[in-house]
Design a protein that fits this description.
The complex is a heterodimer of chains A (781) and B (147).
Chain A: H1 2-17, H2 23-60, E1 68-71, E2 76-77, H3 85-94, E3 98-99, E4 108-112, E5 115-119, E6 123-125, E7 128-130, E8 134-140, E9 143-149, E10 159-160, E11 165-169, E12 175-177, H4 187-197, H5 209-220, H6 231-239, H7 247-263, H8 266-276, E13 278-282, E14 285-288, H9 289-298, H10 307-316, H11 329-346, H12 351-358, H13 376-387, H14 392-395, E15 401-404, H15 408-428, E16 437-444, E17 450-454, H16 466-469, E18 472-473, H17 479-487, E19 498-501, E20 525-528, H18 529-535, H19 538-548, H20 550-560, E21 578-579, H21 581-591, E22 595-596, E23 602-606, E24 612-615, E25 621-622, H22 626-642, E26 659-664, E27 670-676, E28 680-687, H23 702-711, E29 726-732, E30 737-738, E31 746-752, H24 767-780
Parallel strand pairs in A: 1-15, 3-4, 12-14
Antiparallel strand pairs in A: 1-11, 2-10, 4-5, 5-8, 6-7, 8-9, 13-14, 15-23, 16-17, 16-28, 18-21, 19-20, 22-25, 23-24, 26-27, 27-28, 29-30, 29-31
Helix pairs in contact in A: 1-2, 2-7, 4-10, 4-11, 6-7, 6-8, 10-11, 11-12, 15-23, 17-19, 17-20, 17-22, 18-22, 19-20
Chain B: H1 2-21, H2 45-56, H3 60-73, H4 78-91, H5 94-107, H6 112-128, H7 132-144
Helix pairs in contact in B: 2-3, 3-4, 4-5, 4-6, 5-6, 6-7
The chains are: A alpha+beta (781), B mainly alpha (147).
Chain lengths: 781, 147
């Protein structure tokens, strides 16, 4: 206003010397000038308002796009748990616990013979925060014998370890960070930062003319350590990362810095800065913030870094790739020591500290902790299940914490078995090296939790996931659905029913003639039903399926949780239909107990600050009645004891009562094995990506992977509680007739009461006695 | 007259059936005190306790989560499955309630008290689902469990 006024006076003076006629124009000019200036002020303030809006939105809205963090299952420790000290220590190493003489810091342990002492980390689970606990675990006879809280009230009944972080779902720009609160940041980090980057941080208002001037002098005098920008300006610059160096951008930056300081406290600005600054790339992942930088370079939380490490991080800010301690260690070391020196100069550390810190090596871990997940196949299942409930952009930015069911031990066993066996099979069968592929899925038989997914023979590869996306013909893996249809109420068949395994020719108008063959190219005449399944005879199975009706078998499949191909052809009965490993896992999950339980990879989702957002509860539905489930499981156990699955006896004790089924397809293109023990369900597929013959049967290929995998894990026997309404009867297996213990060629089979054959084989003791017994049985059943 | 005859016959028949159903005991069966049907292990006990407390306060969702955690430790404990079934019933998740109770039943051979309660849960769930015939069958089965 003052300037406006003075200008108008000067023009007034001039007007005295000029003719009066010009005065209206001058008056007009003044008006234009006034209006113009007003407009400029309006525009300028509008612009400032706009910047204000932009910067506040950026600062307040979502300050950071936080990737979703994905965790493995936490290990539950309790007395009686089957676990050795070595296994616990392995789990602790996986979690990044450090071995020390006296574990006082969270995340450290000590192992002395049968005792492991450890201190857990604070961790927020869905049911609340579990504070760091010092714990003494004693082992005896392969189990946890005692669990004791050190310095607490004696023994503990149950405790969860913190779960392993197994990956993230990153924002589109692949920014990754670990948020830290200002209160968690060690003073030495703040001292180094403020000394080097902005010594007057707590005194300026966003822009520091004095700092700018000093930087200029320093630069001119060749001691260029300080940049002219304040931390606030640097934060603004980081928010809108752009490489253009124009006056306009610099001006915007200054205005925004001033605005930030009007709205927010120094601490808020500093905290945001600490989380925002860029520390370089790890592959396509961008490392942001001190929290992640500390993990990335030193593999420890920011709280634990020492003075020299703090100086290194702060030193890097000037040029994260130029001073990269991994690629330019010399340069980084020089820069770090310069930071230390200026800290000493500023008096924030003393000379002794300087001397001690300066001689330390960089301390950077050789290999950064993985940014990408070591378990990409499992992660893609998690991602898929999450996308049913969340928008992808939320998964990538809201910092959700995803608690999954992955069991790192099972995953490792599955990877090792698959990779190892594939190499072995190729060399045994003279197959071209690296020609075979495979996929594995393991789940908990009791609750459907997916414990491991392997999507190919390079388990770290993030590409095609054969466990989820490869749809391959399943061969005989589908047969249990046919036998279940036969055995279920109204119990048209029993395990002893004789099936006809003689040549079969199916002529149907509109389709080619169908003439199924057995694998051995033989026909076996009348065979009891259980043995048809055990030996995987195709012809008699096809005849049985046709008799029951393809639509009915498909209905059974649907009930078991698998959506069959439409329309169903006769050949579908022998597994020409293609399914994924995941779908077969669903099928065998249901067969293992008779309850449909969907394979779940997620337990719960928490917000980034630990509030429960969503649970993925256990859901079960009984789809096979108890007695029928008992019969079918018995038949599947026969596959292993006497049928095509006998090879498993090389890997697993018979007492486990393993139930399973082999699958082989046309020209040995696909090799399958699916089955379960008392606690795990697993499905293995082997084959070639180009769909050429792999040269392996189910028994010769997939079964061996299955066996090796399951043998490496703790297994519980298939415990079949005999349901009401089941009786066991000795049967002569060639005739399917009732017999007795001690007779030749007999087998003891379960029957739904009232369905066992009445006719007796000739061996079964004197006829009269048999008659009397049968009479009694009829009366008392 | 005819009615009387019918009644007499009915009474006789009833007597006959009763005679069939109840075997005359050689010695009176010892009165078994009501014990916890299926005790849980020490690791699970605090979880079960917490689940019950949460459920009594109406926090059904976290109560269910505690039971699922307990089931990971003792997956074959029919009592835990039943507790979860009851929570699902109160939550109005009737199919789940029925499934969990059936699961409990499949593991509860010999635990007649548990089985009785499971069948009751199944009956209530089926009623809520409109399957009154199925509910009746379940309630009948609940009644048939030996005391």
């Amino acid at each position: 206003m003052k300037r406006l006024f003075s200008r108008s006076t000067s023009s007034g003076k001039r007007s005295a010397r000029r003719p009066a006629r010009k005065s209206p124009r001058r008056f007009f000019g003044k008006k234009i000038l006034l209006a113009g200036l007003l407009l400029a002020v309006l525009l300028a303030s509008g612009y400032v308002l706009h910047l204000d809006f932009v910067i506040r939105e950026r600062f307040e809205g979502r300050r950071f796009a936080l990737p979703a963090r994905v965790y493995a299952r936490p290990l539950e420790l309790y007395p009686g748990l089957q676990l050795t000290a070595a296994e616990l220590v392995e789990e602790l190493r996986l979690l990044g616990y450090r071995e020390t003489a006296s574990p006082r810091e969270p995340g450290s342990y000590r192992w002395r013979e049968s005792r492991v002492t450890l201190k857990t980390r604070d961790f927020t689970f869905a049911d609340g925060m579990q504070p760091a606990t010092t714990l003494q675990v004693d082992f005896a006879e392969g189990r946890v014998a005692r669990l004791e809280r050190v310095g607490g009230d004696g023994h503990l009944a149950l405790l969860r370890l913190d779960p392993a972080l197994i990956g993230g779902i990153y924002p589109g720009n692949n920014e990754d960070r670990v948020l830290v609160r200002l209160s968690e940041v060690p003073q030495r980090v703040l001292d180094a930062l403020i000394t080097v980057e902005d010594v007057r941080f707590y005194r300026h208002r966003g822009v520091d003319p004095r700092g700018l001037a000093r930087a200029l002098v320093m630069t001119l005098s060749g001691r260029s350590l300080q940049g002219g920008s304040t931390l606030t300006q640097q934060l603004v610059k980081n928010f809108f990362l752009s490489s253009e160096r124009t006056v306009r951008r610099k001006l915007n930056e200054m205005i925004m810095a001033l605005l930030l300081e009007i709205h927010y406290s120094k601490d808020e600005i500093l905290e945001t800065y600490l989380n925002e600054v860029y520390f370089g790339q790890d592959g396509n992942r961008a490392i942001h913030g001190f929290g992640l930088a500390s993990a990335h370079f030193f593999d420890k939380p920011l709280m634990q870094i020492d003075l020299s490490e703090a100086a290194l991080l702060v030193g890097m800010l000037k040029g994260p790739s130029y001073y990269s301690p991994r690629r330019q260690p010399e340069r980084a070391l020089g820069r770090r020591n310069l930071v230390l020196a200026s800290m000493a100069e500023a008096g924030v550390i003393d000379d002794q500290q300087l001397l001690a810190a300066r001689i330390l090596p960089l301390g950077v871990v050789e290999r950064p902790p993985r940014g990408t997940s070591p378990y990409p196949a499992f992660l893609s299942l998690v991602h898929r299940q999450l996308r049913e409930n969340y928008r992808d952009q939320d998964l990538r930015s809201e910092g959700l914490q995803i608690f999954t069911t992955l069991d790192p031990w099972v995953q490792r066993a599955a990877e090792r078995a698959l990779v190892g066996r594939l190499e072995q099979l190729e060399s045994n069968w003279n197959l071209p090296a690296a020609s075979l592929q495979g996929a594995v899925l393991v789940s908990d038989a009791r609750n459907g939790e997916v414990q491991a997914v392997v999507g190919g023979r390079n388990p770290r590869y993030e590409g095609f996931n054969r466990a989820l996306d490869a749809r391959r013909p399943v061969g005989s893996l589908i047969k249990p659905a046919i036998f279940l249809t036969a055995l279920q109420p109204p119990h048209r068949y029993t395990l002893a029913s004789l099936l006809d395994d003689s040549p079969l020719l199916l002529r149907q108008p509109g389709t080619e003639d169908w003439q199924p063959q057995n694998y051995d190219k033989q026909f076996h005449g009348p065979v009891p039903l259980y043995r048809v399944l055990a030996q995987s005879y195709n012809v008699s199975t096809a005849r049985l399926g046709l008799e029951l009706g393809v639509p009915e078998v498909q209905q059974t499949l649907r009930r078991l949780g698998v959506e069959p191909e439409r329309p169903g052809y006769a050949a579908s009965l022998l597994g020409t239909d293609a399914y994924t490993v995941l779908e077969m896992a669903q099928l065998y999950q249901t067969l293992a107990g008779g309850f449909r339980i969907s394979p779940r990879a997620i337990r719960e989702v928490l917000t980034f600050d630990g509030r429960p957002l969503q649970r993925y509860p256990l859901a079960v539905e009984q789809v096979i009645d108890g007695p029928t489930s008992y019969l079918l499981t018995t038949a599947l156990q026969r596959v292993v004891t006497e049928g095509t699955g006998q090879g498993l006896n090389r890997y697993l004790p018979e007492a486990l009562g393993v139930a399973g089924k082999t699958g082989t397809t046309d020209a040995l293109r696909d090799s399958w094995f699916a089955g379960f023990t008392g606690n795990r369900v697993a499905v293995v597929w082997l084959g070639r990506d180009d769909n050429q013959p792999a040269g392996l049967t189910g028994a010769g290929g997939a079964l061996t992977v299955w066996g090796e995998l399951m043998a490496a894990l703790k297994q519980e026997p298939v415990l079949l509680a005999m349901p009401e309404g089941i009786e066991h009867v000795w049967i002569e297996s060639s005739s399917g007739r009732r017999s007795a213990a001690g007779c030749p060629d007999v087998v003891k089979l379960p029957f739904v009461v009232g369905t066992a054959p009445a006719e007796t084989a000739s061996c079964a003791t004197p006829r009269e006695k048999g008659t009397v017994r049968r009479w009694f049985e009829r009366v008392f059943r | 007259m005819r009615r009387l005859l019918v009644r007499t016959l009915l009474v006789m028949l009833a007597g006959l059936f009763a005679g069939c159903a109840v075997r005359p005991p050689v010695a009176p069966p010892p009165k078994v005190p009501e014990v916890e049907v299926e005790p849980v292990g020490p690791a699970v006990a605090p979880l079960l306790r917490a689940a019950r407390e949460l459920a009594s306060a109406g926090d059904l969702e976290p109560a269910g989560a505690h039971l699922e955690r307990a089931l990971r430790i003792e997956p074959r404990n029919p009592l835990l499955w039943q507790e979860l079934a009851r929570i699902r019933l109160v939550q109005g998740l009737y199919r789940q309630a029925e499934g969990m109770a059936a699961r409990s039943n499949s593991l509860a051979a010999g635990h007649s008290q548990l089985r009785r309660e499971n069948w009751r849960i199944i009956g209530r769930a089926r009623n809520a689902l409109g399957d009154h015939q199925g509910a009746k069958e379940a309630f009948d089965l609940a009644g048939q469990q030996p005391p």
